[in-house]
Amino acid sequence: MRAAAPRPARADARRNRDKLIEAARSAFAAADDTVPLETVARAAGVGIGTLYRHFPTREALVEAVFAAELDAVTASADELLAGLPPEVALRAWMDRYAGFVATKRGMLGTLRAGWASGAIATPATRERLTAAIGVLLAAGARTGSLRSDVDPDDVTTMVFGVFHSVAVDDTPDRIGRVLDLVVDALRPRDGGGAHPVAD
To answer: How far apart are CA 62 and CA 69, in angstroms?
Structure first.
């Protein structure tokens, strides 16, 4: 006799899980992943027992937050393109990625330890981010607003470089200026040739 299919999670249980992930995301971005789990539960409006039912360990909570953030930043490429020109969508996506980086920095200790021990699965982060960038570049190439001769993985390297080189306490304005330069480098060259060189 075939076993019955598992029942879908109740709507309130799904809501509690989502609230816990959002509360943890905010806490990790503002401080780091050593925030007491009681603080996360309180911010989500649930008891600590509810938190542990969904996430038996701190690693499980960190993994869920990271996965949710990665899903959101990669899905946002299509969402942004639905309402913005490709070059504007690309720049807005970079801001969304900056938020992802801020959250990830707050979780880095637990993530690294979890990846090393195998307690947290290693996600295909770079591949998924590069695919999102590829969607944005392809849309820009179709409209002529972004270069068509750029490898998406090269752009991933550029964006990663921005966030690896800036200090954690760099101002959003400075990071924004550097990201503006990245997008400017991706605009079509005049007449299809090289950028003019000043005398």
So the answer is: 11
Superfamily of domain 58-190: Tetracycline Repressor, domain 2 (1.10.357.10)
CA–CA dist 101, 17 (Å, integer)? 22
Structure token pair of residue 125 = 């982060």
Find out whether 63 and 28 touch, Cβ atoms under 8 Å.
no
Write the secondary structure of 147-182 as one string of H (helix), E (strand) and C (coil).
Answer: CCCCCHHHHHHHHHHHHHHCCCCCCHHHHHHHHHHH
User: What would the two tokens of residue 158 be?
Assistant: 């550029």
Maximum pairwise Cα distance, the chain: 82
* Side chain identity at residue 14, one-letter code: R
CATH top-level class for 10-56? mainly alpha
Calpha distance 23→44 (Å, rounded): 5
Q: Which bin fits 112, alpha (ψ -120 to 50), beta or left (φ > 0)?
A: alpha
Indicate the DSSP class of residue 45: T
Whether the CB-CB separation of 22 and 28 falls below 8 Å is answered with no
Determine how many CB atoms are found less than 10 A away from the CB of residue 195.
Answer: 9
Global confidence as pTM? 0.80
pLDDT tens-place string over residues 56-115? 999 999 999 999 999 999 999 999 999 999 999 999 999 999 888 888 888 888 998 888
